[in-house]
Amino acid sequence: MGMVVLVTGVARHLGARFVAELRRRPDVDLVVGVDVQPPRHPVEEPDGPAAPYRFHQLDLRRPAVARVIAEHRVDTVVHLAVSATGLGSTNRSSVKESNVIGTMQLLGACQKAPGVRRLVVKSTTGVYGSAPRDPAVFTERTQPKNLPGGGFAKDAVEVEGYVRGFARRRPDVAVTVLRFANIVGPGADTPLVEYFALPVLPTVLGYDPRLQFAHEDDVVEVLCRAALPPEPDTVNTGTFNLAGEGVLLLSQCARRLGRPTLPLLLPAISWMAALARQTRMVDFSPEQLRLLTHGRVVDTARLRETFGYRPRFTTAEAFADFAAAQSAGLLPPARLAAVTDGLAALLGPEYARAARSHASRPRS
């Protein structure tokens, strides 16, 4: 008998991509999808032999998921339904309930199911927060100086806490937590992607944060490796950061997209962010604003050395693939970069040295 894998969050782009890839794996006999709404697009049918797929429309906040696990004799659970935005509802309290209460119900069902042997949970590097006195690089063992005070990042912190409790109660279950950096790609649908789609990018005056990105192809591959039996000389249980190597400054991202920036004082951009959320123009949350002020960089050595996977895309390559799929900005990227570099040259070498020093300065 092969594996029976239950996947939550299949109505979103990432979940649908993961299900299609998982069905191609020879170790998998059945994939069971669960979400509160049917998938927006039909799940792609893989070429060649593929494991069958069954979809159940249900709310994870209800105990019905336990019946699905028992009915299909699920042995592996991949929890992708922890998200910054809700399906069909943008109400923050509803999203939090879906993330936290939904996870609690799922873990309760897994705890009572003796056949469950593996659990994979999608998390975020947002659990480290974004603050002015953060370390230059976060490792999986780094304790953040300031825990996220709200939003999706706080949900993820609570979810990880419940997952650790589950791991203590069910030591026979292999548990993996994957902390993804900002996911980008041609089909990515995240709040940060919505921000980069704006014709003009509001930024915080005086800040040019360092950002990391994870390409959706790497995310899907790592999820598959975490769900399946580990390869020789690797360990696929524990907590792992995933991000492309290298960093990009926010100003570099804007140039690559051909988007002009609008530097604003922090109070002004905070007001704009609140207005954008109220009008549902873009989900510009306080945690995203902190990221776009202070940035965040994580270490991925454990992913390479223990998990045995090196991302195919660097941060710059992942963002380039995302940018190629976007509509043209107000200014051609090459022209915008040339103008910016020309202004820096006119301001003289002292400005250029100061800019490089600011971009590379480590934070204590």
Strand content: 15-25%
Oligomer: single chain
The SS-based structural class is alpha/beta
The average pLDDT score comes to 87
Distance between the termini: 52 Å
- Shape label: globular
Can you count the beta strands? 13
Largest sheet: 7 strands, parallel
Order of helices and strands: EHEEHEHEHEEHEEEHEEHEHHHHHH
Q: Work out the helicity level.
A: 40-55%
Spatial strand order of the main sheet: 3-2-1-4-5-6-11
Helices, by number, come to 13
Can you tell me the residue ranges where pLDDT is under 50 for at least 5 consecutive residues?
339-345, 347-364
Radius of gyration: 21 Å
Summary, kept brief:
Helices cover 41% and strands 16% of the residues. It is built from 13 helices and 13 strands.
What secondary-structure arrangement, pairings included, does this model have?
Layout: E1 3-8, H1 13-22, E2 28-35, E3 53-57, H2 64-72, E4 76-79, H3 92-112, E5 118-124, H4 151-169, E6 174-180, E7 182-184, H5 191-196, E8 201-204, E9 210-211, E10 213-215, H6 216-227, E11 238-242, E12 248-249, H7 250-257, E13 261-264, H8 266-278, H9 286-294, H10 301-307, H11 315-324, H12 333-347, H13 349-360
Parallel strand pairs: 1-2, 1-4, 2-3, 4-5, 5-6, 6-11, 7-10, 8-13
Antiparallel strand pairs: 9-12
Helix pairs in contact: 1-6, 2-3, 3-4, 7-12
